[in-house]
Each structure stands twice: as structure tokens, then as C-alpha cells.
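I have a small job for you when you get a moment. Would you make up a two-line entry for one protein for me to read? No commentary is needed, just the two lines. Write everything out right here, beneath this request.
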Amino acid sequence: MLMKSARVLVLTCSSRPGALGPAVTRWWLDTVAERAAESGVELVPVALGDLDLPFLDEEEHPSSGIYQHEHTRRWSALVDSVDAIVAVVPEYNYGMPATLKNALDYLSAEWAWKPIGFVSYGNTSAGTRAVQHAKQVVSTLRLVPLGATVAIRIGEAVTEGRLRADASRDEAGLALLEELVRVANALRPLRERLRDTASAGPLAGSYARRLTPDDAEEVTVLQRCCWPEEAILNGTLDIPALHESLDEVRDWLADWHATGVWLDGRLLGMVRARPVGGDWQIGRLAVVPDLRGRGLGRWLLHGAESTADAGTRRILMFTGAKSTRNIELYEREGYRQVPSDGPPGTVCLTKTTPNAAADRA
């Protein structure tokens, strides 16, 4: 699976004055900083004590997503914006601190399908009983606890309030980050399906969403899979989709309204559209070869047409002059060939929008 950047919330859970938590958090952040930068991971350190969350004071159940208080809305936005969580947690009387339990209880959907790793500290058990306690709660919220953990026994690791150097502990801290990022990427499709920006796709279990520059890797792979056939049919390799760099793909993803259909982390198909003059131009309609003939291309085409600006009178697209299957599909959908000054070896097809048809009537 292609790896994407991840945003990691690093929670210092103890709010007790003079607690060891900030020093433990600083150790972990310093240890993983270089690896995080190399991997495109953004670390977001937050101390629960700084959030000013009172004991849960929302009237509605968290699953409703209806929040009356500003402190809840801020907490919701923060958690919703990240892909994974690391909790730096002490053990208090065989359990996690009340601050963490309270912060977890405030929210519901914001936690779903995000991995959570633990850096625990304590005396006899090095905080491991707090982690076991927390895992019961986070699993109920559909957070996914990692197998990798870091457990620090205070008596062996701390001198004058500071952590002593320990190479094996550093290795465990790095292993935690690496597993966190792998699992965050594996769970990304499940998180995306919960987003308001995602909608049901045409195939069972699939979903559609707008593509962004972060999707450049998957888009590039799809293009390289789909356009060799066009190159063979039209006798040319001079097809931009075959040789665009990642940066070039990122650039046009930022400028075009592009939609992709996904299933289990795989990009099945895409299309892009944008206004050009008074027209609505559609292009890069692509479906993975093994799923052609199942209506996915037609579904994407209709979706791209529906995004046209209200004032648009004509939709246009270009395809290879010898791409007969493409041309037949577009003509069945109401397009007709028109003269154009498009790229050599291509034909232009246009379709009148319902707005224009209504004006003529």
C-alpha cells in the first residue's frame, strides 16, 4: 500500500502539577522527530490539562455530534483533524487518569478507525495496567490500539525528574511511530467513508470523494494502468497521462474538480472537470481494466456532468481519434463530434446541457 503523510495527536494525559508526563512526552517527540520528518508525519503535541475540558457536560450523547459548548467543539475539531493518537499515560491506582477517560467520553465518531499507541509510565507495572484499562475504552470507541507500546518504570528510568538515556527505549519509541503510521494508512479507507465529503459509489462497498493533491500517487498509478491501451490504439506515446510526474499530477489535482471511486484503499476510477471559457470540460475518465464494463465509467461521467456550473451551456471532452469504444460510449450519452483545434490525433465531443436546451425551448 502506498504510504501517505499522517497527522498524529500526542496527548500528555496527566494534569497533576509536577507530573512526569511532560518530560516523557518530550523524550518521545525528540526521539521520533527525525523519522517523523522523513516520513511526512506531523506531530501535534497537546496537554489535556491545557484543554480546559470540564467533566463531561454535554446534554446530547456524543454519538449525535451535537455539541453545545465551545470547549467540546474545539476538542472535536482537533481530534477529527488527525489520523492517529499517541497517549502518554501514567498509572493511577491500577488505571488510567480521569483526564484521559473524560476526554475520550466527550467524543464518538471523531475517534473511529484511528490507531492509538501508548507510552506509559509508573512504578511496579511501568503503567501497563493503565494501558490495559484504556484499551477497553478505546476499543469501544472504534479506536484501534497498537501492539507496539513503550512502558517506562520510573525507578529505573528517572533521575531528578529527567529520563536517563536508554537506547532500547529509543528503539521502542521509533517502533511505536512506525507501527502507528502503517496502521493509520491501512485504516484510512474506513476513516474516509465516514467523512461528510464521501458518498456511496456505484459498486458494493465503494465510495466516491473529491481527489486532492495527496492522492497524486494513486492517480499516477491509475493513469499508467489505463492509458497504454489508448497509446496502442492511436499509435502514439505522446499522451500526458502516461508520462506526467508526481508534481505535475499534484498541480492539476489542485486546479481541477476531480472525483475518484475507491474500494478497500484502491482507486478504481476517476474523472476530472473544470470550466473553460463558457464550457464545462471533462477529461481523464479512467476505470481500472479489470472493472470495465460494469457501469463505473458511465457513473463517473454523469457525476462530472452534474458538477457543471449553473450557467454552463455546453460540455466538451477530447479523446483519441481511434479510441472507438470511448467515442461510442460518449455518443450513446448524447455527445456528438465537432471540429476543433485540439491536440493532434484527438477528436472533440460536445453535449448541450439541460440549461441550454431549456433556453432554446
User: Anything to note?
Assistant: The chain has a mean pLDDT of 92.
